[in-house]
Amino acid sequence: MSWLSASLVLAFLFQQSWSDKSFEHLFSEDVSNISFPDNFIWGYASAAYQVEGGWDADGKSESIWDYDAHNHPDWFPEGQNGDVACDAYHKTDVDIDLLVYQGVKAYRFSISWPRVLPTGLVDNINEAGIAYYKDLITKLRANNIEPIVTMHHWDHPRILEEQGGFLNESLIVPAFVDYATLLWERFGDDVKWWTTFNEPKQTCGGGYDYGGISPQVRLSGVGGYICGHNVLKAHAKAYRVYDQKFRATQNGKVSMVIDTSWHEPASDSAEDIEASERQNLFHYGWFADPIVFGDYPEVMRQRVDERSRLQNLPASRLPYFTDEEKEELKGSYDYLAINMYTTDLAKWKDDDPIGDPSMSDDVSVTTYQPDDWEKTVTDWFKVVPWGARHLVRWIANRYGDGKGIIVTENGYHDNGNNLEDLDTRGRYHKLYLSNLNDAMYKDGVNLIGYIAWSLMNDVEWYAGWLVNLGHYHVDFYSPERTRTPKQSSVYYKKVVTTNCLVDVCEPAPRK
Ligand SMILES: *[C@@H]1O[C@H](CO)[C@@H](O)[C@H](O)[C@H]1NC(C)=O
Ligand SMILES: *[C@@H]1O[C@H](CO)[C@@H](O)[C@H](O)[C@H]1NC(C)=O
Question: What is the pTM of this model?
Answer without folding.
Answer: 0.95
